[in-house]
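Pilot study result, target chain (535 residues):
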Amino acid sequence: MNKRFLSAAVLSLSAAFPATAFADYSLTILHLNDLHSRIESINKYDSTCNAESEAEGKCFGGIARIKTKLDERRDALAGEGKNVLTVDAGDQFQGSLFYTTYKGEAAVGFLNDMGIDVMAVGNHEFDDGPEVLAKFIDKANFPVLSGNIDVSNEPSLKGNVPGVLILEVGGEKIGIVSALAEDTTETSSPGKNVRFIQAEDYLKGAVEGLESAGVNKIIAVTHMGLPRDMEIAAAVSGIDLIVGGHSHTLLSNTQERAKGPYPVVVKNPEGKEVPIVQAYAYGKFLGEINVTWDDAGNVVSAEGEPILLDASVTPDAGFADRVAELAAPIEGLKAKVIGSAAAPIGADRSVCRAQVCEMGVLVADAMLDRVKDQGIQIAIQNGGGLRASIDEGEITMGEVLTVLPFQNTLSTFQLKGADVVAALENGVSQVEDGKGRFPQVAGLKYTFDASKPAGERISDVMVADGDDFTALDPEAVYGVVSNNYMRGGGDGYKIFASNGMKAYDFGPDLADVVAEFLAEKGGYTPYTDDRITVK
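Predicted structure:
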């Protein structure tokens, strides 16, 4: 999320919501988004935390920790006579071996027992087609919404995905509307029978319908991403609060890495202030926003802060036992043979952080192959993310997970040619120190000279053009795929975070992408080529 864009659209909270002498009606919304199958606790890299780190108090989140905090906050709020709603803004699917193994069945069981009131469909809920989403919905004890998708021609979902919900909480009717990113046909697999409607067009009609029914407190639970949520808030009258997901944005008034305040506030067409919240991703935070309306249904205050689920939160014992039980079969998945190598696939640290290496070629080629039909031309993977070599012979899923243990996911975005060069300069800026930022690439060739000062080392950058390569144009815009860590500015790739356009965390785990690439090849022959030239 571009901070410059954000700051231009956000209004001061003190100006937006003047202090009130009394509360007409208040509702606290506890919210999650983009858990991405992080059923087990995570480390600081958002990947599965091990037992040693858990014992050292270095882990975050995990479904058992979420359960503890949800119960604690709901009990405390109920004790204060507060009204509470618990919301999930989508993308429970995809991101760990729990999803690979259970395809959402584990997630829905936990969500049922957590007491979720409503969930929005995320784009990754379609990753294995509409049928798998339909099974999830059938087992859910809570409504699963998405209003701007037309499933009338999809037999597995027809009649099962409402777009509007009215809940009575504390004697007041709360209208819930929902919308999903319109480009889900490109980022997931909804199938030919699911049609997407422009979110603003749908939401205007849905809100008008609720208002006609006498509902004057309306919450949009969306899976659109913060930039789109801000556009929706500015375009659609009648929405009082947007609880969002999709862009994995941390909004906070206290966290150093926050991309904006909690809540972000945007004026709607009538000049009314609309608060927008999101709580990062992977279960690291539980969002908590308290909204107060006056008798006329106008929001007069919106205050809160996401709660960091760190080691100070003790995991729920019952949930923890279930997680351990479900994790046992996953060990078998790690032993699954997914391909073979005709020779060792080298990932020596000293090589992959200084020049083209066999593992870098494999991973970058697999990344580009996965998204090339989305107009992506260039793949960039940090050499430090390649943690092991693979021996000649059979390749198991466990070996791939050892190479790529961080549960990084594919991220796509657009970048001007000059910024691609800047990214490469960052990548080779500390090559003499063996830093992990070294760029392994696909669809791209470049030359670097480590004898020159950092920032002046890159030359002869070429981009694949069919079977040939042409010189990179500094002013042209290119489609780039990387991993979510780098896309967020990790390993010094701040240019991705600041200048990346149409950035999207596409979702599939990088290890899964490489495993599927190897499986398709049958037998893989490792190689290197002239994509990186060292002077």
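One observation from the pilot: The chain has two domains: 28-327, 335-534. A full batch analysis is planned for the follow-on phase.
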